[in-house]
């Protein structure tokens, strides 16, 4: 199995149910994606990466993005192509230097452009998927580029579970190792089918995509992602979104994953 199979599993379970709900308390945005909608974004992104940037097995794609619904789509798209994700923390732009392609949030573009040697795509992270504004550099605009990409993705070669899938600091996992790690972590954390997991930005950055994205998918859970979270409003949000577990924040009456009961 590879991460692409985890998204396929979500589609089979309930294609129309909310799978990723994304908040940004700095902008007031709330975006909700069903499994079908997320899969469409994954397909379009994968087609863009494969057709325009030759992303396939053996290629590396650096992802310098915060927790966000577009980040979920980008990560799953890279893995659908059979390529390797280089997960780049905000404090380490140098880790992007050797990537074939870099996808980066607009606010990090100036620093990334100084070190990146591959193609660079900038993401505005606009709630409606609109393009970048106030930018005049050489990076290509993800929102504009992805718009015309196809809605159905077929990789040039099926993703090989033994191929490299993630490099993050000293961690290296194959595509198959990603799904195995996600399944093992889901079991260890007690994630179950139907769980709704709230994840804040800092916790996602610290835990990495296996924990915040793949483990919930492996368990059959859905996600509530919170960027720039207002701590005072998290309890009300958790109630409104019917959250059953949290990764990071502690909210009275809701189990915190990875912490003793």
TrEMBL record:
Domain of life: Bacteria
Protein's name in the database: Uncharacterized protein (TIGR03089 family)
SUPFAM superfamilies membership: Acetyl-CoA synthetase-like (SSF56801)
